[in-house]
């Protein structure tokens, strides 16, 4: 879903065929970065976890030479983008699944915004603090659901104590750092608590169609497990 939503924003903002300069902060194993490199963009992945960096480099090594030349991987912290890059160096900056591990996200976000060229796109994927009660509630964990209503803290599926973000807070933050929110989507509206089963291709297409529709439609997107926010540098 995130890839579809991101492509929609890129296509709506840039001429078809334009090779973009992309920075993926906290790229993990490089799934999104590789996908964009395969699409013809010049991609830089920044990741501080050495295991993830090794996995991304291994995946990149299996790609054709043209794709390998379009992607570089840097081991480093997303809060130190100013150490590695000049302001305005990128057309698109991704920060997916990172903010939940950062206690004070505002300095990180301000640094990411500085990396964007004028008109550049900032793509964030965050845990939705306004829907933290949904997962325990649907699982019948009533005490957990009650505790989640007024909290931004939660324990993720890896057993780590992390934090979530509210749409209203991030909207204000993006405006304050000069990359105001232009579009937002819900991610994992129906599937957050669903069993991880392959199903038939037709089932998968129906699932994706439902998630795509719900992710852009109120009130469904507001209770999604994750939020995909897209800000644009002024």
From TrEMBL:
What domain of life does the UniProt record list for this protein's source? Bacteria
Q: Which Pfam families match?
A: Methyltransf_11
Q: Which CDD domains match?
A: AdoMet_MTases
Q: Which organism is it from?
A: Streptomyces sviceus (strain ATCC 29083 / DSM 924 / JCM 4929 / NBRC 13980 / NCIMB 11184 / NRRL 5439 / UC 5370)
Against InterPro entries, the record matches this protein to:
Methyltransf_11, SAM-dependent_MTases_sf
Give a GO molecular function annotation for the protein: S-adenosylmethionine-dependent methyltransferase activity
**Name this polypeptide is given:** Methyltransferase
Q: Does the keyword Transmembrane apply?
A: no
Q: Where is the Methyltransferase type domain?
A: 23-123
Asked whether the UniProt record includes Cell inner membrane among its keywords, one would answer no
Q: Name one GO biological process term.
A: methylation
| Keywords, alphabetical | Methyltransferase, Transferase
């Amino acid at each position: 879903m995130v890839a579809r939503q991101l492509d929609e924003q890129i296509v709506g903002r840039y001429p078809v065929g334009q090779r973009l300069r992309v920075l993926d902060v906290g790229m993990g194993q490089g799934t999104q970065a590789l996908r964009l490199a395969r699409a013809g963009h010049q991609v830089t992945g920044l990741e501080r976890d050495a295991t993830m960096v090794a996995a991304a480099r291994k995946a990149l090594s299996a790609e054709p030479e043209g794709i390998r030349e379009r992607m570089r991987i840097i081991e480093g912290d997303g809060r130190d983008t100013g150490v590695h890059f000049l302001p305005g160096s990128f057309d698109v900056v991704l920060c997916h699944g990172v903010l939940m591990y950062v206690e004070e996200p505002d300095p990180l976000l301000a640094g990411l915004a500085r990396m964007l060229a004028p008109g550049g796109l900032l793509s964030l994927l965050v845990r939705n603090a306004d829907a933290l009660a949904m997962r325990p509630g649907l699982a019948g964990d009533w005490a957990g659901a009650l505790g989640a209503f007024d909290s931004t803290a939660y324990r993720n599926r890896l057993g780590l104590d992390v934090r979530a973000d509210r749409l209203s807070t991030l909207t204000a933050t993006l405006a304050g750092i000069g990359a105001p929110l232009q579009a937002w989507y819900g991610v994992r509206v129906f599937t957050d608590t669903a069993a991880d089963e392959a199903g038939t291709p037709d089932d998968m297409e129906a699932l994706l169609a439902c998630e795509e529709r719900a992710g852009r439609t109120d009130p469904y997107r507001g209770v999604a497990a994750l939020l995909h926010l897209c800000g644009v540098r002024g």
